[in-house]
């Protein structure tokens, strides 16, 4: 995998956030690529990609506040909804389509994932793993819906409506006929788990995951 064009500074800044998942996404994207970031928030990832990878970046964000922040940073971002607006994008419009920490907040995760692989040559998807052992422990011993740094909201106010596990996601990728090019699983401290760790262990020990996907022979689009 190609190294970052420029190393991020020692201390995080708004331009170089101290979020290992965003840095992993950047590692998976080729320099100079055309990138669409869906659910781009305040634009941290887009800014990181443009600064370190020299990409031609575009973004979609649901909240007007997020769009305003992105525009203030000079980013090309429009207001839109992943569940409804991706159908308007033509096939093969981008080299990469990114969905970072957003899949679980969509109404139709399968449809959204299929659109990612139709619009882009490759897709990068990251999400929190609901099968992480600390979350299992909270359900088992407390009998309460879990709360964590990556799932900080209580059950009645969370924007997440489709929790999934790493095993669920791998099964969905296979179901739609896509191919996993690369995947990285992070533990609760943000450390990478060994790449050769069996899927059941990654599903238990991983707090979040980042996947690089491309269309398989059965892929849509």
TrEMBL record:
Q: Which CDD domains match?
A: AdoMet_MTases (cd02440)
The protein's matches in InterPro entries, at most eight in alphabetical order, are given as: Methionine_synth_MetW, SAM-dependent_MTases_sf
* Superkingdom of the organism of origin: Bacteria
Which protein are we looking at? Methionine biosynthesis MetW
């Amino acid at each position: 995998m190609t190294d970052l064009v420029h190393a991020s500074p020692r201390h995080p800044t708004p331009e170089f956030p101290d979020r290992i998942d965003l840095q992993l996404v950047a590692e998976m994207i080729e320099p100079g690529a055309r990138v669409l970031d869906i659910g781009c928030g305040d634009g941290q990832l887009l800014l990181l990609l443009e600064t370190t990878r020299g990409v031609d970046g575009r973004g979609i964000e649901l909240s007007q506040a997020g769009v305003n922040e992105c525009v203030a940073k000079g980013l090309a971002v429009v207001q839109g909804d992943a569940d409804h607006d991706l159908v308007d994008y033509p096939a093969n419009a981008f080299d990469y389509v990114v969905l970072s920490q957003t899949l679980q907040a969509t109404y139709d995760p399968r449809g959204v994932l299929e659109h990612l692989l139709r619009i882009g040559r490759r897709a990068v998807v990251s999400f929190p793993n609901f099968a992480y052992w600390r979350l299992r422990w909270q359900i088992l011993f407390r009998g309460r819906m879990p709360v964590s740094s990556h799932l900080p909201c209580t059950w009645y106010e969370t924007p997440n409506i489709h929790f999934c596990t790493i095993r669920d996601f791998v099964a969905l990728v296979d179901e739609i006929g896509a191919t996993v090019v690369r995947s990285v699983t992070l533990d609760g401290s943000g450390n990478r788990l060994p790449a050769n760790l069996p899927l059941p262990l990654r599903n238990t020990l991983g707090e979040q995951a980042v996947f690089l996907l491309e269309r398989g022979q059965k892929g849509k689009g």
